[in-house]
Design goal:
With 199 residues, this protein is an alpha+beta fold. The protein has two domains: 2-83, Orthogonal Bundle (434 Repressor (Amino-terminal Domain)); 100-198, Jelly Rolls. It has four helices and ten strands, in the order H-H-H-H-E-E-E-E-E-E-E-E-E-E. The radius of gyration is 26 Å and the shape is elongated.
Length: 199
């Protein structure tokens, strides 16, 4: 008796999940198709999936095979999992100081926490008379440093340059460097590193 009840609960859960996936598939398929300006007939011709099948998919009443999903995904130029994925959040909030790192007088915050591999974007704040060393990357890496406020010295080996608001320095070949605030007020800069290191 107990096993029968548990089996019924498990089957109910599975059916609920399947209904939820069917609804997601219907919403995502319609949204992706319309975003590309395609009719169901256009998608039928591009994917080789019969138009009635596409209509059933968009109504949530179909139980498609992997082959059907793969052909529809290929015709829409999306990964197959995007057809049943939860709709992504459009707006994501990151409060200030949530991901700052550094010691007293220097702080670094990631500006693009979900940046693609090979890209690292940071906002750097330096109190007066503070220095922030930046480690070496790979030979192909380069770092762009631009000053937003104050005065900042960028030093790499024997080379150095002073940045004021709006100025840009490029550190090439993944060289280690440091950012120094030689002024009397807080300096704010942005550092963008491009290359394999940033992944």
């Amino acid at each position: 008796m107990l096993f029968g009840a548990l089996g019924g609960l498990e089957l109910g859960y599975v059916m609920n999940v399947l209904d939820h996936l069917s609804a997601r598939l219907a919403d995502n398929l319609r949204r992706l198709r319309e975003a590309r300006g395609l009719t169901q007939q256009d998608l039928c011709e591009a994917s080789g999936v019969p138009r009635p099948t596409l209509a059933h998919l968009e109504s949530g009443s179909a139980n498609p095979t992997l082959s059907v999903l793969a052909r529809v995904a290929a015709a829409l130029s999306v990964p197959m999992e995007e057809l049943v994925a939860a709709e992504p959040q459009v707006l994501e909030f990151h409060p200030a100081n949530a991901d700052h790192k550094g010691d007293a007088g220097a702080s670094v915050a990631a500006i693009c926490p979900d940046a693609p591999t090979g890209l690292l974007v940071e906002r750097v704040e330096l109190e007066p008379r503070r220095e922030l060393p930046r480690e070496a990357g790979r030979q192909a890496d380069r770092t762009y440093v631009t000053c937003e406020r104050g005065e900042l010295e960028v030093v790499s080996g024997e080379e150095r340059c002073t940045l004021r608001a709006g100025d840009l320095a490029i550190v090439r070949r993944g060289a280690s460097h440091s950012l120094s605030n030689r002024g009397r007020a807080r300096a704010v800069a942005y550092s963008i590193r491009v290359g394999a290191w940033a992944g």
